Amino acid sequence: MTHSIRTDTRSAPYDGGRGDWRDTATRFALLPLRIFLGITFIYAGLDKLTDSAFLQEAGSGSIGDTMRTVRDSSAIPALVDLALENPVAFGYAIAAGELAVGIGTLLGLLSRLAALGGALISLSLWLTVSWASDPYYYGNDLVYLMAWIPLVLAGASVLSVDAALRSRRRQRSGGYH
Predict the structure, then answer these.
(1) DSSP summary character for residue 12
(2) Close Cβ partners of 70 (under 8 Å, ≥ 6 residues apart)
(3) 131 Cβ contact partners less than 8 Å away, ≥ 6 residues apart
């Protein structure tokens, strides 16, 4: 069996050069994930803000009842207790956080920070609301947490405000950084 080392001089995937289709695919690989998570979190935030039942302390479908229901089965009951001190404010905070994360992710604005926010929201929901899912993979919050990790690590490399700002800084400094 012969192994070879690639010795061609094609451009690196993130240098803006014209590489082969694999380089292009690499540059755009996280874009579908970014679009999906951005739209999903915007939708989730708007859904909470427009659902009159959700932003209530008690009642069917309310944030308060949801928190009381999952309190004893969550991994961190103290976190649920904290939310129960003012469930309506907590509901607004979650909705605002989801909106900020979704908009930042979709636009690619402060994309690593937005992705970290999304990961933290997903982690908190996994440890509270979906912790008791059995088997564990039935709870979708863990899957969302794992989906955020590549965006935390890589950010938004293409079609993003971050990429445009990086390009602008490079042009002003006269080189590639």
Answers:
(1) P
(2) 80, 128, 129, 131, 132
(3) 70, 73, 74, 75, 139
What is the predicted pLDDT for the residue at 80?
A: 96
At 101, phi and psi to the nearest 5?
-65, -45
Amino acid at residue number 119: A
Q: Using CA of residue 147, residue 164, residue 39, residue 132, what is the dihedral sign?
A: positive
- The CA distances from residue 49 to 56, 85, 150, in Å, are 11, 19, 28
159/119 Cα distance (integer angstroms): 22
Which residues neighbour 44 within 8 Å (Cβ) at sequence distance 6 or greater? Answer: 95, 98, 102
Other beta carbons less than 10 A from residue 24's beta carbon: 13
Mean confidence (pLDDT) of the chain:
90
